[in-house]
Amino acid sequence: MYFAIVLLLLFVLPAASIAMQWSSAHAAAPLIGKWFVFWGVGVRLFLAGARQTIQPRFTAEEIFEIHETKSHAIVRELGFANLSVGTLGIFSLIWPEWTFPAAIVGGLYYGFAAVGHVFRKSRNAKEYVAMVSDFFIFAVLAGFVAFSWKSDLTNRPTLGYAGKVSRVVSSAPGNPSLCLGSPSGGRPRCLERILSVSDMG
Questions:
Q1: The pTM is what?
Q2: CA neighbours within 13 Å on the CB side: how many for 76?
Q3: Residue 55 burial class via C-beta count within 10 angstroms: exposed 0-12, middle 13-18, buried 19 and up
Q4: Is the model's pLDDT at 170 over the cut of 50?
Q5: Which of 10, 128, 196, 200 sits most deeply, having the most CB atoms within 10 A of its CB?
Q6: Which among 101, 93, 58 has a CA at the least distance from the CA of 78?
Q7: Residue 123 CB-density burial (10 A; 0-12 exposed, 13-18 middle, 19+ buried)
């Protein structure tokens, strides 16, 4: 059951969701981020957190092979953290602006968890699957975050190296807008908000 859930939530369901929307997508990265965050961060971590909270013995004994009931309190604390991050990932499907922060938080969690598995000298089959899947989802989320960050920096308006500011007149008479000079000397970018004459000074 554990292996099937990991396979479904980290590979099958994200790939199926991406395939269903592929024809209408304008770019691959937002689609990949959307569904890997929802399934991999949201649903998987929420389910893991729920099980760790209700049944901490599974994580302690079946994955880490810790046969000590005192460890259950720590596993429950981990469950609360997973429930919190999982909720963020699930709601990113409703509020898309949550996708990027959920990818950062979820990616960091999976990355640190994968490294933690590496340094354990003895690993059973379940922990080995957890380590491999953690590295996989970390790589996917890191790629999405890096691509999104680069795109944001590329599309963000800038004052330019010379700090040039120019005035232009918009299509509506008497409504000048603020335009920022381009560092390369190309066409300046204008802010979306139309400024009044008093704002321009």
A1: 0.72
A2: 8
A3: middle
A4: no
A5: 10
A6: 58
A7: middle
